[in-house]
Amino acid sequence: MCGIVGYSGPGNSVGPIIEGLSRLEYRGYDSAGICLKIDNQLQIIKKEGKLDNLKFLIEEQKPFSHTGIGHTRWATHGAVTSDNAHPHGNELFAVVHNGIIENASSLKKELQSEGFQFKSQTDSEVFLVLLTKFFKQSNDVLKSISKAFSTITGNSAFVIIEKASDKLYCLKRSAPLVVGENKEKREAFVSSDPFALVGFAPRIYFPQDEVICESVISPVEVKINFYELDLSPSNRYKFQTNAMTLDATTKGPYEHFMLKEIHEQPKLINKLAAYYIKNEGRKILDDLRNFEAPFWHLTACGTAWHAGLVIKNFFEQINRQRSSVEIASEFRYKNPIIKKEEVGLFISQSGETADTLACQELCAQKGISSFSIVNVEGSTLFRNSNKNFLIHAGVEIGVASTKAFTLQVLTGYLMSRAMEGSLDDADLFKEIQLLSTRIEELCAGGDKIKEVAEKIYYNKGFIFTGRGKYFPISLEGALKLKEIAYVHAEGYAAGELKHGPIALIDEDIVNIAIVGPELFEKTVSNVEEVKARRGKIVVIGPRNSEELRHLSDFYIELDFEGLPNLSPLLVNVALQFLAYHIAFLKGTDIDKPRNLAKSVTVE
Ligand code: AGP
Which residue among 200, 318, 389, 477 is least crowded, i.e. fewest CB within 10 A of its CB? Predict the structure, then answer.
């Protein structure tokens, strides 16, 4: 997902912009650029590749500018080239864009027929040319921004600077954008993520869709104005202090953010349980007591979808409530059957995933309630949902989601126990604390998993298998390995192997077999099927089983005792470590895997 940072104030805009973009690198990008207003000219410096390439160019020129905008681009329209990098500018304006202009090609043809020239293959440049066209007709910036934005379709966020002033303009539709303010320093900021403004802007505004924000710096103050598209004053924005801290930006003693975030899980699990069972989150859950929906539509993408599969199991087994867990990019186009009184439950770490947001919008149009399990307060999903269940994971920098998955599932479990009215049952807090302790032990004693990784990392394919509540974990384990180690891996219901995948098994294929205490014998027989075909077997299962020791090439023993509901989360952390160590041995970019973005805000 693209990153946006803008600054206007008495200081040099270069520092905050580059620092802010550095903090957003984790979201994935393939080029970076900055536009600075210097001596009444708009100077653009941009380069494909990593942010360091841009920093090198800036170091050489050492520019000073009171007003500027920066961008990290994750290519959607147009190849990864310097020309296609943002900002896009001309003699009047410079623009950065996050999202997709869906009617860009027809508009571009029309503008070209009117004689307008284009320098890039991007859809974003169409907005710049429209803005310029309308400004030349009206000589009014706000009017031109409004008219250009009303002409385009699709989900987008834009930040604009102009040669004629030090103002920052921005607006958005179903894309993340915040405006920051530091009154003491008379500074204004814009970003696609409040995290980029931590330490710079103590006050953060969250404008709603189609609200034009104008930051004006005067010799005595900074002023943020908000307008509707008809240019009437707008009050459609929320304000909050930027409470985020910076410690998330450092890896501490860890080699990678992903490893740090795996190790954070025990502490975060205890914190989340205390928040929802004993502290301010309790009243949010108490609203769910005896809540019943005729049907739950869970929708999400990727890891969040896997979390939904685990949560569905709680809703069925504990609450006997029916649900479906749909991949958001499928659900939104399948004309789903949605009836009154049903509930949409949207699971998303970022709260900005385009497909998941589209599902929330679809459910809202059908008139059903929207619940979210989300990490980012103030995100689009958060603001569009009727009830939010925050997972309080803190900023998750690693593109491969780890702590967010664990806390999404735990939040879903707590919701289930709240509906059952059993939040005060002694077993609940005890099991959660035990889970935390077991994961702590896993974090402390990871050598065994590392040794297994050393023995299997070179294999060409991996089949993760599990039954029942472990089947979603086999999917999640496979995804983790795929996305950070770039090896082929798939998750399968263990009972499905004989229906086709077993044809794949040979000595080059590794079966990562999750064997829980439940359905133990049945799952063991699935492992035996693989053994009989000379597949390499890594078992993750209960301790001290001679049967598993005999069957497996490698045996990762876990203590399932006392975890009747949450053992899938313990297994999953073992798989997070396994994926991490395999990726480490393969030398991939673990925190920023190739081709991936942390939050996919485009379809
Ligand atoms: C997780 O490891 C992946 N990076 C990805 O599948 C992610 O879970 C998915 O894109 C959904 O993101 P969200 O939770 O922010 O909606």
Answer: 318
